[in-house]
Design goal:
The complex is a heterodimer. By secondary structure, chain A is an all-beta fold. Helices cover 0% and strands 49% of the residues of chain A. In chain A, strands 2, 4, 5, 6, 9, 10 and 11 form a seven-stranded mixed β-sheet that branches. Classes of the chains: A mainly beta, B mainly beta.
């Protein structure tokens, strides 16, 4: 296993279009997280799953954002009707269950909305 | 008030110096604490977990002060390769379902100079 994998690496889209990103976690990890990061800021929590259940999501996550993890393995994050403010690096991370389980991040998907 | 706060820096220090960063958190019930390192245009990577009794890993020492709700990171004998952004991570109770999620500070930038 080579770690957390995210696709695509880069996505350029026009405002108003829908985009979908994929994350493949480390295979034995039950938890999967999505974060968003903009320049000069730390990663901002969006949502996380334990297996296929979405356990928490940020209030910052508007109705245009939806995430799924249908079989408890890979996850998708969809953004509908993209806005320029959605431009950011979208990071996926996975971990084992447990208070001391650290996050392992993928390389991220950089979204640019024009 | 942010849930996890860090001084953004930058901290500019000469090689060999000792430097310390603090991070304050708002949720007194938080149970998990970490320091991550992020290099420019890379994903965050775990530097070390922070344990109640304090812990050390080579030149790095992490401490937790529950009473004052802060964690600290001390770097001794700074190397040029330590130049990076250091992110504090705390598990914070989510506002939608109340479940905890790992929340990042905005990071402290360190620049070690020759």
């Amino acid at each position: 296993d080579t770690g957390v994998s995210q696709n695509p690496r880069h996505k350029i889209t026009k405002r108003g279009q829908n985009v979908t990103f994929r994350c493949d976690p480390i295979s034995e990890h039950n938890r999967l997280y999505w974060y968003r990061q903009t320049l000069g800021q730390g990663p901002e929590f969006l949502t996380y799953f334990q297996n296929e259940a979405q356990l928490e999501k940020s209030r910052l996550l508007s109705d245009r954002f939806s995430a799924e993890r249908p079989k408890g393995s890979f996850s998708t994050l969809e953004i509908q009707r993209t806005e320029q403010g959605d431009s950011a690096m979208y990071l996926c991370a996975s971990s084992l269950v447990g208070l001391d389980s650290p996050l392992h991040f993928g390389n991220g998907t950089r979204l640019t909305v024009t | 008030r942010k849930e996890v706060e860090q001084d953004p820096g930058p901290f500019n220090v000469p090689e060999g110096a000792t430097v310390a960063f603090n991070c304050t958190y708002s949720n007194s019930a938080s149970q998990s604490f970490f320091w991550y390192r992020q290099d420019c245009r890379k994903e965050p990577k775990l530097l070390m977990s922070v344990y109640s009794s304090g812990n050390e890993d080579g030149r790095f020492t992490a401490q937790l002060n529950r009473a004052s709700q802060y964690i600290s990171l001390l770097i001794r004998d700074s190397k040029l390769s330590d130049s990076a952004t250091y992110l504090c991570v705390v598990n914070i109770k989510g506002r939608v379902t109340g479940r905890r999620a790992l929340t990042f500070g905005s990071g402290t930038r360190l620049q070690v100079q020759p």
